[in-house]
């Protein structure tokens, strides 16, 4: 039965598109007269075709040449931005290297790189741990068991 319904739907589509042969058209017309379910399917398909034809159409598409040119312009702008960012990063790196070299070469201008200036950092006292006698006397409440 399912195969018969698929065949009927296929013939109905051909009928609606005016692509059915005279014999197929005759079959569809007989089904329309005899089968209420087939008439419902036919009415549904006709309504659907009408709705599809009355749908609003999108605005006129852009010509392919114009679209291609727009895409190429966008690609060109992005590549220019990347070049500018790359050049900016390269300049920043160069300025950092030049600044570092100049700071090392001229120690009086940059004291943090001056090896002549010595600051004495006091060494911390060694850590003392009192095992049996604490350095600070503990309260009696803590000493009692």
Give the proportion of residues in helices. 55-70%
The largest sheet is: none
Q: What is the overall silhouette?
A: elongated
What is the mean pLDDT? 81
- Compute the number of structural domains: 2
Distance separating the two termini:
96 Å
Distinct helical segment count? 5
SSE map:
Layout: H1 2-16, H2 22-34, H3 36-54, H4 64-105, H5 140-143
Explain what this protein looks like in three dimensions.
The protein is an all-alpha fold. The chain folds into two domains: 2-54, no CATH class; 60-114. Helices cover 64% and strands 0% of the residues. It is built from five helices and no strands. Helix 1 crosses helix 2, helix 1 crosses helix 3 (36-54) and helix 2 (22-34) crosses helix 3 (36-54). The protein is elongated. The termini are far apart. 1% of the residues are buried.
What characteristics describe this protein?
mainly alpha; 145 residues; 5 helices; elongated; 0% strand
